């Protein structure tokens, strides 16, 4: 019944010390400067998400029957969009909608993954069977296609998309945690813990879980990036965020219509999505390495 | 007659509204003549043959047979290969088609004499039996769900001579003859062909057989449909030899395809992109009134829209002049009625038609009056409601957002939700429970009664049940004098306007992109529902 | 073992068919309205259409009718396209398969060597470029990449056709280049990461250290490590496949290709249930089969898991 899992190979796996080469040879993957930059980008982005509405309270209620202006117009450094709204203001105001959803998706699917993955990996038996079939089912659903159908059923909208993505993203978390737990539970220290007749729950959450934390946190960061991209793809397919809401994905989709009149209306949100997703990816990888090292030190 | 598409048209929301420094309240254009990009001069007809042209459609067709899928683009494409008994000329007047003449011996009887030189593209002659069969199939709800409605008033269709078909109606209908065109419900095909394919015509395997100047050679849904010129047509041999229609659902892709010179004709260019199409070196954009109507209507079975004061408050918040001048970039006309001015041109001059329609009472854009009306209503504190906009009509979405801003000032919160065209269609059903709705309707016939009958007649989507209006509309059906019909319709529209049921927004235009070396004669609102490829010519420098 | 898995897969497909059926049943939109269009309609017309498509039956009856058809080998008729479902899918399958295969090929051809080199020379310039590309590939929305490519190839380097599926053979291949590259970017990013991680892991393991100590040439050592690293790379296939299936809708829409992705999307919106049912099950079955093969390979290849399986059962 074992599910092997490729998904776990995506990220840095925790290495038992015995299997590792001399630590001197372990390459440092990411330049700290790069990571610092990525953290800065995320900081600014989340700052905009938190306080953007204070800086530009009127981003979405501008005089929307005004004209389309190219970048560099007076008062509109990035020009205006197809409704005459300022692109810069919308980009700042759009951070909240663009980031909040992905973060909730990542946290939600992480929670699902930890609970179900640990149960399945450690308890085995029917729970494992049920959870594994459940992940099979979800993995057999292409995310975008499922989203189109489900958005239809529940009338679409932002929060429907959030819940949907949590459900659809959770299999990767479940599998990662489960695979990690499987790997860990075959280790001698777990056998030792069992011999000390510690309770199963205690073994599960106190001893196994910390060893898969790095994977889970890394995956959560990657999920933020994935969800950011998925939200914009859904807007592109016409089932994402409704018009009239400041959101990068929506801006990107709408801005394509006037890409020759005001290229900034499409490239600005595209750039923001890509840059933030890159930053989330970098930070995710970095956290993964840090935590796996910390974990070893503690152990 | 039909909506942009019930199928797969441009499902992607391409954004909106063209800009331009239009001042609110400036007069919208009112000419019914097509207007092209001003600085482009198209050369004379060189008489050259044109090897092939590529037409780019903003979405796919799923069937070539209009009875199966009856979006406006289906009509455009079917007209390439199929003909009706009659045809519509540039002025909207009926002309001979497969029938070389027709007469109406009494109000319910129509006799069509078929021309003797009409031949299907497979070489077999068009017989009276084929015509009767095609029309019988068109009135069958399961064979032709998209056409059956227009023939519900038909009692019998009979072959009354070797080359003569007689149609009897249940009740007189002055507008019936127009249904016998390829802008209506007459798509004449061969009985043998239909039966050979068990009725599944218009599909990728059966294709479609007609008597027009072009034969379908290939149809791949979501990809393309190809036509070849045939020499069996009774008319003059057209200049274009082969036509390939490509379905490009993403508007950015379509624009880039035109940029790289791959496109000769682009149907329904979105206004938001019109300026970019006009800027292309070898394309021009031509605008023509497309007989479409866009308006709001209230489902009065849904609270609080049962309250006239609420409806008036919203009606006063509609800034239709600004919608037209800014969102449509002037390519449309603020509507004063449900009927389009073009539908009156058989009787009135364009100016008179507009003057007549302007006599119908209007709710002026006046936010103070809107607030006053709301204060008088059952919900003086305001309320929240939702409107669905179809994703194939981005200009409807932007207009709704603009309306939402004005309504916010009045105290009404309007949430705008963009949905796939199919979901929007379903929401038009009164039982869907949406109080404030869009109506977006393309007429192909230009019959003045067509849209009012739908919107305020029996079983209308607003659940508006005004006995006086219904009585007027039944008189319209019986009245044979066109001028008198129009007067009755104006009367009915006046009643509904006073009740603020339908709030007309604009009469639409469509923008068509043409390559500069491609000329088109007599371009009119009716061009694309006739055998339009015959009007194309190679333009000189 | 495998038999149980096959039964499991069949069970999953069965549940999926019910879930999809139920969702389509509940989804907003109305088949009758889609067929009749935006116009007045008579009650008789509505009744006739409802009768024709069995819309008045209960949802359970409708489902059983569909299931009965499938079990007897009849997938039904597409309501939207009016052709048998098997044809509707069969007509588009080659294009989507070719697109996916080409994208996969490009991704593997570039990403595996890049991943291996990145791991062998970890921290080197190639590693950094590879890493940057991988992160970028994961971070850029597919349709945005497609748009950028379209823009480039429409304006500056007009060597590839920018839309449509071509006329078969080499022409189709030419038409598929841009969409395949678009998809390959995201796909390649995943594979680079997979390969690099797996290789790093092998290169740090004791047997590699030992092999190096014995003086085997780096070439031989790397080949040895790659052989072992192949296991996790191969098992990543199911993940990659789902990514590909989702991505094809975006690429097909952007490049106006008549493939399965657009077919599914259109059919869902039109409520063309027979097509949606068959297609979702087909896609799910393909993914499940690949996952099954990957699992079997994993079981056969990894002695540790095999041993543990033996102990557990």
TrEMBL record, chain A:
- List the CDD domains hit by this protein, alphabetically: TM_PBP2 (cd06261)
Which regions are flagged for Polar residues bias? 1-13
Region named Disordered:
1-26
Localization, per the record, is: Cell membrane
Superkingdom of source: Bacteria
Membrane-protein topology: Multi-pass membrane protein
Which residue range or ranges hold the ABC transmembrane type-1 domain?
A: 99-284
TM region(s), chain numbering:
33-56, 99-122, 134-152, 208-237, 257-283
Which keywords label this protein? Cell membrane, Membrane, Transmembrane, Transmembrane helix, Transport
InterPro entries the record matches: BP-dependent_transpt_permease, MetI-like, MetI-like_sf
Q: Where is the signal peptide?
A: none
Q: Which protein family is it in?
A: Belongs to the binding-protein-dependent transport system permease family.
Return the protein name.
Glutathione transport system permease protein GsiD
Q: Which organism is it from?
A: Demequina sediminis
From TrEMBL, chain C:
TM regions (residue ranges): 7-27, 97-120, 132-156, 176-195, 229-251, 279-301
Membrane topology type: Multi-pass membrane protein
Coiled-coil residues:
none
Q: Which InterPro entries match?
A: BPD_transp_1_N (IPR045621), MetI-like (IPR000515), MetI-like_sf (IPR035906)
Q: Does the keyword Mitochondrion apply?
A: no
The UniProt entry, under CDD domains, shows: TM_PBP2
Domain ABC transmembrane type-1 intervals: 93-294
Does this UniProt record's set of keywords contain Transport? yes
Which UniProt keywords are present, listed alphabetically? Cell membrane, Membrane, Transmembrane, Transmembrane helix, Transport
Q: Where in the cell is it found?
A: Cell membrane
Which residues belong to the signal peptide in this entry? Answer: none
Similarity comment: Belongs to the binding-protein-dependent transport system permease family.
The name of this protein is: Dipeptide transport system permease protein DppB
Q: Which organism is it from?
A: Demequina sediminis
Top-down, what is the taxonomic lineage of the species of origin?
Answer: Bacteria, Bacillati, Actinomycetota, Actinomycetes, Micrococcales
């Amino acid at each position: 019944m074992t599910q092997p899992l490729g998904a776990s190979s995506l990220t840095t796996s925790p290495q038992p010390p015995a299997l590792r080469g001399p630590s001197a040879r372990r390459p440092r993957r990411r330049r700290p400067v790069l990571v610092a930059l990525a953290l800065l980008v995320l900081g600014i982005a989340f700052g905009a998400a938190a306080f953007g509405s204070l800086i530009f309270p009127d981003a979405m209620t501008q005089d929307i029957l005004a004209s389309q202006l190219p970048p560099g117009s007076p008062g509109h450094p990035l020009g205006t969009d197809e409704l005459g709204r300022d692109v810069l203001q919308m980009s700042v105001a759009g951070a909240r909608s663009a980031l909040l959803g992905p973060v909730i998706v990542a946290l939600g699917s992480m929670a699902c993954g930890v609970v179900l993955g640990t149960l399945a990996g450690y308890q085995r038996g029917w729970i494992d069977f049920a959870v594994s079939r459940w992940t099979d089912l979800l993995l057999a659903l292409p995310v975008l296609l499922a989203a189109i159908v489900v958005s239809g059923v529940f009338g679409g909208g932002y929060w429907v998309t959030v819940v949907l993505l949590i459900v659809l993203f959770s299999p990767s978390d479940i599998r990662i945690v489960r695979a990690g737990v499987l790997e860990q539970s075959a280790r001698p220290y777990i056998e030792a813990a069992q011999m000390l007749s510690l309770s199963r729950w205690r073994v599960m959450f106190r001893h196994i879980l910390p060893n898969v934390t790095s994977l889970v946190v890394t995956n959560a960061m990657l999920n933020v990036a994935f969800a950011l991209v998925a939200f914009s793809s859904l807007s592109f397919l016409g089932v994402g965020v409704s018009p009239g809401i400041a959101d990068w994905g929506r801006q990107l989709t709408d801005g394509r219509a006037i890409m020759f009149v005001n290229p900034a209306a499409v490239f600005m949100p595209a750039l923001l999505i890509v840059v933030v997703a890159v930053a989330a990816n970098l930070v995710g990888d970095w956290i993964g390495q840090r935590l796996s090292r910390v974990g070893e030190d503690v152990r | 007659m039909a909506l942009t598409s019930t199928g797969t048209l441009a499902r992607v929301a391409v954004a909106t509204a063209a800009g331009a420094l239009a001042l609110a309240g400036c007069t919208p254009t009112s000419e019914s003549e097509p207007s092209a990009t001003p600085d482009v001069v198209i050369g004379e007809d060189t008489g050259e043959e044109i090897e092939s042209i590529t037409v780019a459609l903003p979405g796919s067709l799923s069937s070539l047979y209009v009875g199966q899928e009856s979006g406006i683009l289906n009509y455009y494409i079917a007209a390439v290969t199929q003909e009706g008994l009659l045809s519509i000329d540039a002025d909207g007047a009926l002309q001979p088609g497969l029938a070389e003449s027709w007469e109406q011996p009494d109000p319910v009887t129509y006799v069509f004499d078929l021309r003797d030189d009409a031949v299907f593209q497979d070489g077999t002659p068009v017989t009276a039996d084929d015509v009767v069969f095609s029309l019988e199939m068109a009135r069958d709800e399961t064979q032709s769900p998209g056409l059956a409605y227009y023939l519900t008033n038909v009692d019998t269709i009979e072959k009354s001579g070797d080359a003569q078909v007689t149609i009897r109606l249940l009740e007189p209908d002055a507008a019936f003859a127009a249904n016998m065109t390829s802008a209506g419900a007459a798509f004449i095909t061969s009985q043998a062909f239909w039966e050979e394919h068990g009725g599944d015509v218009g599909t990728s395997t059966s294709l479609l057989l007609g008597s027009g100047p072009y034969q379908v050679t290939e149809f791949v849904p979501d990809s393309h449909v190809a036509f070849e010129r045939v020499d069996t047509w009774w008319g003059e041999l057209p200049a274009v030899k082969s036509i390939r229609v490509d379905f490009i659902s993403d508007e950015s892709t379509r624009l880039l395809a035109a940029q790289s010179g791959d496109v000769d004709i682009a149907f329904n260019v979105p206004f938001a992109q019109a300026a970019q199409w006009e800027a292309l070196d070898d394309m021009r954009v031509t605008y023509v009134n497309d007989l479409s109507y866009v308006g709001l209507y209230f489902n009065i079975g849904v609270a609080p829209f049962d309250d006239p004061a609420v409806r008036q408050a919203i009606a006063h918040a509609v800034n239709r002049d600004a919608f037209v001048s800014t969102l449509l970039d002037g390519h449309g006309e603020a509507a004063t009625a449900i009927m389009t001015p073009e539908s009156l041109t058989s009787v009135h001059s364009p100016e008179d038609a507009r003057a007549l329609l302007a006599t119908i009472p209007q709710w002026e854009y006046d936010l103070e009056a809107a607030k006053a009306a709301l204060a008088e209503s059952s919900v003086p504190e305001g309320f929240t409601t939702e409107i669905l906009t179809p994703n194939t009509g981005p200009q409807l979405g932007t207009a709704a957002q603009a309306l939402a801003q004005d309504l916010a000032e009045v105290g009404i919160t309007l949430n705008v939700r963009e949905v796939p065209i199919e979901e929007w269609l379903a929401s038009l059903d009164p039982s869907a429970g949406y109080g404030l709705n869009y109506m977006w309707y393309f007429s192909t016939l230009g019959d003045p009664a067509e849209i009012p009958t739908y919107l305020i007649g029996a079983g209308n989507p607003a659940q508006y049940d005004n006995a006086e209006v219904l009585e007027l509309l039944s008189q319209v059906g019986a009245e044979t004098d066109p001028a008198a019909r129009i007067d009755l319709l104006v009367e009915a529209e006046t009643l509904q306007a006073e009740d603020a049921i339908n709030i007309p927004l604009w009469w639409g235009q469509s923008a068509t992109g043409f390559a500069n070396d491609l000329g088109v004669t007599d371009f009119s609102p009716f061009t694309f529902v006739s055998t339009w490829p015959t009007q194309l010519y190679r333009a000189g420098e | 073992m495998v038999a149980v898995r096959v039964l499991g897969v069949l069970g999953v497909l069965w549940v999926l068919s019910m879930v999809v059926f139920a969702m389509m049943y509940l989804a907003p939109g109305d088949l009758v309205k889609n067929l009749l269009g935006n116009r007045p309609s008579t009650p008789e017309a509505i009744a006739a259409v409802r009768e024709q498509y069995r819309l008045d039956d209960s949802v359970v009856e409708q489902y059983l009718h569909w299931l009965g058809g499938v079990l007897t080998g009849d997938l039904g008729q597409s309501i939207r396209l009016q052709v048998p479902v098997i044809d509707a899918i069969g007509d588009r399958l080659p294009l989507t398969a070719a697109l996916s295969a080409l994208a996969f090929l490009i991704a593997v051809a570039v990403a595996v060597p890049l991943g291996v080199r990145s791991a062998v020379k970890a921290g080197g310039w190639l590693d950094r470029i590879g890493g940057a590309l991988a992160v970028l590939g994961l971070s850029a929305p597919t349709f945005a990449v497609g748009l950028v490519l379209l823009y480039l190839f429409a304006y500056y380097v007009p060597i590839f056709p920018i839309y449509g599926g071509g006329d078969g053979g080499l022409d189709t291949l030419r038409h598929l280049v841009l969409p395949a590259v678009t998809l390959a970017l995201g796909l390649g990013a995943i594979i680079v990461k997979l390969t690099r991680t797996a290789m790093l892991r092998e290169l740090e393991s004791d047997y590699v250290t030992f092999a190096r100590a014995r003086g085997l040439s780096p070439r031989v050592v790397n080949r040895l490590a790659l052989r072992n690293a192949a296991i996790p790379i191969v098992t990543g296939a199911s993940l990659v496949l789902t990514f590909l299936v989702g991505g094809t809708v975006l690429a097909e829409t952007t490049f106006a290709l008549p493939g399965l992705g657009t077919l599914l999307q259109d059919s869902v919106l039109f409520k063309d249930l027979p097509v949606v049912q068959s297609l979702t099950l087909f896609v799910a079955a393909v993914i499940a089969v690949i996952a099954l093969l990957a699992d079997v390979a994993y079981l056969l290849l990894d002695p540790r898991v095999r041993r543990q399986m033996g102990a557990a059962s």
